[in-house]
Amino acid sequence: MPGIIAALAAAGTPLSILTKGTLLRRDLALLAEASGHVPVDVGMSIAIYDDFALPYGHARSP
Question: Which residues pair with 47 in a beta bridge?
Answer without folding.
Answer: none
